[in-house]
């Protein structure tokens, strides 16, 4: 017979065996550094940002450049532009100007309502700016500086033929207003005209800008 003491020892051994559980297997983990490296290596390369193409020049400016490139005086008469013309109905077209270049704008029922020209070179165009200033101030009834253009830039203007605006029509309604313009660094005398009145001609003069040819 098994003694009571032996039974007690066997029971204790069985309880100890049941209480032991297998240790869990370790779970593989990644360090923060390895996670970052994995994400970075798997991400697609950033796409290149497209370079915006330059905005095309307005139709009138393109036309001015085309006419200027064909002109005899292009080396001494850089192209000027009118980014604002004060009219929504006008349509630009090429205009004939001997030895130079020109663009005119037509309005419904009014051909050559206004325009700009780089006149052909003449002998007096080579005179220094001081003499040109005195000549235009003497020739025309009105005179103004054009500070938005390369210095010295100025204009003499009035009614075509260098006439003064009539007392009974000081705004020149229905008349052809004309300005002679000199621009610093250029040899030619530019012509700016308007059949829409004195105020419109002055608006065009205020909005004259240099037009940079594309290289």
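Q: What amino acid sequence fits the structure above?
A:
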């Amino acid at each position: 017979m098994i003694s009571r003491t032996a039974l007690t020892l066997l029971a204790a051994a069985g309880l100890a065996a049941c209480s032991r559980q297998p240790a869990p297997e370790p779970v593989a983990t990644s360090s923060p550094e390895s996670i970052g490296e994995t994400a970075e290596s798997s991400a697609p390369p950033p796409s290149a940002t497209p370079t915006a193409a330059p905005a095309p020049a307005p139709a009138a400016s393109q036309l001015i450049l085309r006419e200027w490139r064909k002109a005899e005086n292009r080396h001494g008469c850089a192209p000027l532009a009118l980014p604002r013309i004060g009219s929504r109905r006008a349509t630009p077209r090429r205009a004939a100007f001997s030895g130079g270049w020109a663009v005119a704008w037509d309005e419904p029922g009014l051909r050559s309502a206004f325009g700009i020209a780089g006149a052909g070179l003449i002998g007096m165009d080579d005179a220094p700016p001081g003499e040109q200033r005195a000549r235009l101030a003497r020739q025309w009834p009105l005179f103004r500086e054009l500070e938005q253009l390369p210095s010295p830039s100025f204009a003499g203007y009035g009614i075509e033929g260098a006439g003064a605006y009539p007392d009974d029509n000081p705004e020149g309604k229905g008349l052809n207003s004309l300005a002679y313009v000199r621009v610093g660094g250029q040899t030619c005398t530019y012509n700016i005209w308007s059949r829409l009145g004195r105020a419109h001609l002055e608006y065009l003069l205020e909005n004259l800008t240099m037009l940079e040819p594309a290289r």
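Q: And what stands out in the fold?
A: The first helix runs from residue 4 to 19.
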